[in-house]
């Protein structure tokens, strides 16, 4: 891969230079360049300067995925900059694990990886003091075992009974209980911002589907298949869904009946669904 003075990069001599600035790329160009970079990455030996350069370029090109994922958690107290840094780690993991030969879009593969990395960051930073991973896991086991034993015994279990159930020492049980005191979980009843604006407590906001993330994938797919339509078909879609004209108004505009417009739209939309 070579850079020229205009800020473009060429991956091969028979490929035209493409702008490497993500801001100047549309969705189709970004996807095409990402695909080319992944193919190039497969040809390079991991650990070499060329491999690192191509991978870093992939990170820069796909930073919008990290920003999209981080925006889902802006209600959290953690700084956005920290979430972005953690999201980059997830993006690098996604790049390392992505196999372009499987026919899956990179954005579809990477988004869950980036989001999962940010969620793990929240789990690790929800402790008011640093607690070893062993004690963090023990706290979870203690909570589950305590609830199970309490139902079985009809009373709160003793330290000895918990130790026997978990096959640990009583001292470890006491350590686990101390670790639980260091854990700070946010309350669902805590208000988030101005209640008049967002509906009040966090519990009212849980379970809401983030349609923006779905739109990222859908719009990317749509941008790929729209160029396959004829100019007349694209014009018909624009009149109906952009200009918001009725079928009768479209018929008057293009000189045909409302029924014919309906049939044309049905055929075009069926083709788009197959493309999706």
UniProtKB/TrEMBL annotation:
Q: Which GO terms describe its biological process?
A: DNA-templated transcription initiation
SUPFAM superfamilies, alphabetized: Sigma2 domain of RNA polymerase sigma factors, Sigma3 and sigma4 domains of RNA polymerase sigma factors
Q: Could you tell me which Pfam families the record lists for this protein?
A: Sigma70_r2, Sigma70_r3, Sigma70_r4
Domain RNA polymerase sigma-70 intervals: 82-95
Q: Which UniProt keywords apply?
A: DNA-binding, Sigma factor, Transcription, Transcription regulation
What PROSITE patterns has UniProt attached to this entry? SIGMA70_1
| UniProt-listed CDD domains | Sigma70_r4 (cd06171)
Q: Which PANTHER family match?
A: RNA POLYMERASE SIGMA-E FACTOR (PTHR30385:SF4), SIGMA FACTOR F FLAGELLAR (PTHR30385)
Task: List the protein's name.
Answer: B/F/G family RNA polymerase sigma-70 factor
């Amino acid at each position: 891969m070579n850079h020229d003075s205009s800020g473009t990069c060429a991956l091969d001599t028979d490929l035209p230079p493409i702008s490497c600035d993500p801001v100047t790329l549309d969705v189709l160009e970004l996807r095409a360049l990402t695909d080319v970079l992944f193919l190039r990455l497969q040809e390079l030996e991991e650990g070499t300067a060329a491999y690192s350069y191509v991978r870093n370029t992939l990170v820069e090109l796909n930073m919008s995925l990290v920003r999209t994922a981080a925006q889902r958690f802006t209600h959290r107290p953690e700084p956005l900059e920290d979430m972005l840094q953690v999201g980059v780690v997830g993006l690098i993991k996604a790049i390392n694990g992505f196999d372009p030969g499987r026919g899956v879009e990179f954005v579809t593969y990477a988004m869950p990886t980036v989001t999962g990395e940010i969620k793990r960051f929240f789990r690790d930073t929800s402790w008011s003091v640093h607690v070893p991973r062993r004690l963090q896991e023990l706290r979870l086991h203690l909570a589950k075992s305590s609830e199970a034993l309490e139902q079985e015994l009809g009373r709160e279990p003793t330290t000895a009974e918990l130790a026997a159930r978990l096959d640990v020492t009583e001292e470890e049980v006491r350590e686990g209980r101390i670790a639980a005191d260091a854990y700070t979980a946010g309350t669902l009843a805590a208000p988030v911002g101005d209640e008049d604006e967002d509906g009040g407590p966090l519990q009212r906001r849980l379970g809401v589907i983030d349609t923006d993330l779905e739109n990222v994938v859908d719009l990317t797919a749509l941008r790929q298949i729209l160029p396959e339509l004829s100019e007349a078909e694209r014009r018909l879609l624009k009149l109906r869904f952009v200009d918001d004209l009725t079928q009768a108004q479209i018929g008057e505009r293009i000189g045909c009946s409302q029924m014919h417009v309906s049939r044309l739209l049905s055929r075009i939309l069926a083709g788009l669904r197959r493309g999706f």
